[in-house]
């Protein structure tokens, strides 16, 4: 199966798991689990915006222990939040301000999750390989997170 076929299958599975469930945390948890297992990523999970502290706070994830809070504009996650757009990082060691939760991570993609036109969370995926993520990942992962409401 090529990447597009894998995403097509994953999308269908995620769709069937989240439809009919309104709890956002439950849906984020299953999305992280499904993507993590289907693609064998190093770390797959969500950070949710905490309006009180105006920070990203760790949400449902799969993979090793991660940092719990990220400020607006900081790291790849904070940058995706600030820009309100997907950020693809082919080599995290070249990204100024990258937050290394794990030294095994070499490339990363962060997708904002919108409610209306407001970013409410980000989906962060880390890979131990360089150059893992491209426009195909961006397109499908944006489609997948749009299932969160
Ligand atoms: N690398 C991220 C931090 C989160 S961990 O990778 C799970 C960043 O720079 O925002």
List the helices and strands and how they pair.
Layout (H helix, E strand, L loop, with lengths): L2 H16 L5 H16 L3 E8 L4 E8 L6 E3 L3 H9 L3 E3 L17 E9 L2 E10 L7 H11 L4
Antiparallel strand pairs: 1-2, 1-6, 2-3, 4-5, 5-6
Helix pairs in contact: 1-2, 1-4
The site of methionine sulfoxide has 14 residues, from helix 3 and strand 6.
Describe this structure in words.
- The chain is an alpha+beta fold and 149 residues long.
- It has one domain: GAF domain (Beta-Lactamase).
- The protein is built from four helices and six strands, in the order H-H-E-E-E-H-E-E-E-H.
- Strands 3-2-1-6-5-4 form a six-stranded antiparallel β-sheet, sandwiched between helices.
- Strand 1 and strand 2 form a beta hairpin.
- Helix 1 packs parallel to helix 4.
- The N and C termini lie far apart (30 Å).
- The model has no long low-confidence stretch (mean pLDDT 97).
- The structure holds methionine sulfoxide.
- Residues 43, 66-67, 70, 75-77, 98-99, 101, 105, 108, 124, 126 line the site of methionine sulfoxide.
């Amino acid at each position: 199966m090529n990447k597009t076929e894998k995403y097509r299958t994953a999308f269908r599975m995620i769709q069937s798991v989240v439809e009919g469930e309104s709890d956002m945390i439950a849906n984020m948890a299953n999305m992280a689990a499904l993507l993590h297992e289907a693609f064998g990523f190093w770390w797959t999970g969500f950070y949710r915006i905490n309006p009180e502290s105006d920070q990203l706070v760790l949400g449902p994830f799969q993979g090793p222990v991660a940092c719990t809070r990220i400020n607006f504009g900081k790291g790849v996650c904070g940058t995706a939040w600030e820009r309100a757009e997907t950020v693809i990082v082919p080599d995290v060691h070249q990204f100024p301000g990258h937050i290394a939760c794990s030294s095994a991570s070499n490339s990363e993609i962060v997708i904002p999750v919108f409610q209306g036109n407001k970013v409410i969370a980000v989906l962060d995926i880390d890979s131990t390989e360089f150059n893992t993520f491209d426009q195909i990942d961006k397109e499908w992962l944006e489609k997948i997170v749009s299932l969160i409401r």
